[in-house]
Design goal:
It is built from 20 helices and 2 strands. By secondary structure, it is mainly α. It has a two-stranded antiparallel ribbon. The protein is globular and about 70 Å long. The relative contact order is 0.11.
């Protein structure tokens, strides 16, 4: 049964205190968190769990999300993973006889969508697409291309089920996938960081003895969990995994997100964002206590079955400190690799935003406790220098956990402006402010592909969260941005921008970012020019 979410109004006319209380209530009453569905993740549940309730709605969701060009997902390389997932799921469903049930889309519609998607995918792979740095993309693509080719070979021997001029997809790099299978064939265990994308191992994923669900979930992923459980659950199937999947598909009636639950992630990011902006907060004591209880010797993971990571750990530490419940950040030292902090041990690559969050957590303790100053002061200086040096020449930062540079830039600026020692990063912050001013869209918004509420909020965090009133154009850009924020907010969520196996939106985290921008505006008297501005504009600023 689909749950009815608590309404969280973030329109600019609403009283900020009321809206913040609504957001806190939503986090308490919906502990799993709010995450938008994923085409890729839903496609894997279609393929591996047709026995789960909502199968027809999942098929309809895939058809409804197809673009005019035949693909799925965001522009550029971001479309490859959701498209390869959707095409494989639709071909598999056709092969299994989908479309006969009135609750499912017709075979004609399923075949047409699969054909358009296959043609788009074949063209992209022939051109050698550049995949974005999303989790397991280099494993997902070859694994599903192999399965699609298997479906095409089957249909070639069984005419009438699906007709396509594409006989096989262009070859893709499968070295990482082959190395993984060789590791497993040698008897070595599945790396814990892979559990979130465990479905790439099918059929080898099914009931692997060294993998056990945590709170019912394998890697906090519906796709990974259903792949472990198997296409048709045996009589002795893990009841906790069945319950987890039933709840995951029940929240939206069928489609699923890439990661659920996101309890600690959602609460720490939302509370940290509001506290950073100075929003008065009174969360329920249990909510704060649960955050503190989530921290272990190595910190906390984003979701059950995932490894603990420096990103969620540092944001949780920072949120608790700002809420008056500081916890010593010694757990972060597990992720110190010398030059910077890894998100988790064995990470491929490095994250600007993870290190910005670590700088905030360590910086707060260095600034506010004698023990922190002694233990972490030197590390804060070095980390601030590393973060400064990751800035692009034009003033922005980019990151592996979010598609938009406005998110990465707002994270870096917040950490450096508040916690970098004097003289280390002032020029970098100024360049970031100038870049935000220079990249404002004509309508007053900001965004990578189009102007969005989320990215406009991050841009305003940069302009309003640091004291740079003398920088050229700051006040004017902030005023225009606030007017556009008020116009755009309430239209619904923008395009997903957060990196997982597919792009997604953590809805309440984004809501908190918008509320934080509104609060920052309310603290800046220089944004109100009573002589020149209309009463409507002044009202919007007062209500922000």
């Amino acid at each position: 049964m689909t749950a009815t979410p608590v309404t969280v109004d973030s329109g600019s006319g609403a009283d900020l205190g009321v809206v913040v209380r609504e957001l806190l209530a939503a986090m308490e009453l919906e502990p799993a968190g709010r995450v938008t569905p994923s085409v890729y993740e839903t496609s894997r549940v279609v393929a591996e769990g047709p026995w789960l309730a909502g199968h027809g709605r999942r098929l309809a969701y895939l058809l409804g999300g197809q673009r005019r060009d035949g693909g799925w997902g965001a522009p550029g390389g971001y479309a490859v993973v959701p498209t390869v997932g959707a095409v494989e799921a639709l071909l598999g469903a056709l092969r299994a006889g989908a479309g006969a049930d009135p609750a499912e889309p017709s075979r004609t519609n399923l075949a047409a969508a699969a054909g358009r998607g296959l043609a788009a995918l074949a063209g992209w792979l022939a051109d050698g697409p550049s995949l974005p740095d999303t989790p397991a993309a280099d494993l997902i693509l070859p694994a599903l291309v192999e399965r699609i080719d298997g479906h095409l070979a089957w249909f070639a021997k069984h005419p009438g089920g699906f007709d396509s001029p594409v006989r096989a997809l262009p070859r893709v790099d499968r070295r990482r996938l082959d190395a993984l299978h060789a590791r497993l064939a040698a008897g070595r265990p599945v790396p814990q960081k892979l559990l979130h994308a465990f479905e790439v191992l099918n059929p080898a994923a099914r009931r692997r003895a060294e993998v056990a669900p945590v709170a019912g979930a394998v890697g906090a992923s519906p796709a990974a969990t259903v792949a472990w459980l198997g296409v048709a659950p045996a009589p002795d199937a893990d009841l906790s995994a069945l319950a987890y999947l039933t709840e995951a598909v029940g929240r939206s009636g069928g489609p699923v997100p890439c990661c659920t639950p996101i309890t600690v992630f959602e609460r720490s990011w939302a509370l940290g964002s509001l506290a950073r902006a100075g929003v008065p907060l009174r969360p329920a004591p249990k909510l704060v206590a649960d955050l503190a209880a989530a921290l272990g010797p190595q910190g906390t993971p984003t979701g059950p079955g995932l490894p603990a990571d420096a990103d969620t750990t540092s944001v949780t530490l920072y949120a608790l400190a700002r809420l008056g419940q500081p916890v010593d950040p010694a757990s972060l030292l597990h992720y110190d690799v010398g030059s910077h902090f890894c998100t988790w041990q064995g990470e491929d690559g490095r994250s600007v935003t993870t290190n910005a969050h670590v700088l905030e957590a360590l910086g707060w303790h260095t600034r506010h406790t004698a023990a922190g100053a002694t233990r972490y002061g030197t590390r804060v200086v070095a980390l601030a220098g590393w973060l400064r040096d990751q800035q692009d020449p034009d003033g922005r930062w980019a990151d592996r956990w979010h598609a938009s540079p406005y998110y990465a830039t707002s994270c870096a600026v917040a950490a450096l402006d508040r916690y970098a020692p004097a003289g280390i990063a002032a020029d970098a912050v100024d360049r970031a402010v100038d870049w935000v001013v220079a990249t404002q869209r004509p309508d007053g918004s900001w965004g990578r592909w189009t102007g969005t509420v989320e990215e406009t909020a991050y841009a305003l965090h940069v302009l309003l969260g640091v004291d740079r009133p003398a920088r050229p154009g700051v006040v004017e850009a902030a005023r225009r941005g606030l007017r556009q924020l008020a116009t755009m907010d309430g239209r619904g969520d923008g395009p997903p921008l957060w990196h997982d196996k597919d792009l997604y939106t953590p809805v309440l985290i984004v809501r908190a970012a918008v509320l934080a921008a509104r609060h920052l505006a309310s603290t800046r008297s220089d944004l109100v020019d009573r002589a020149d501005r209309s009463s409507d504009d002044n009202s919007m600023i007062r209500n922000a």
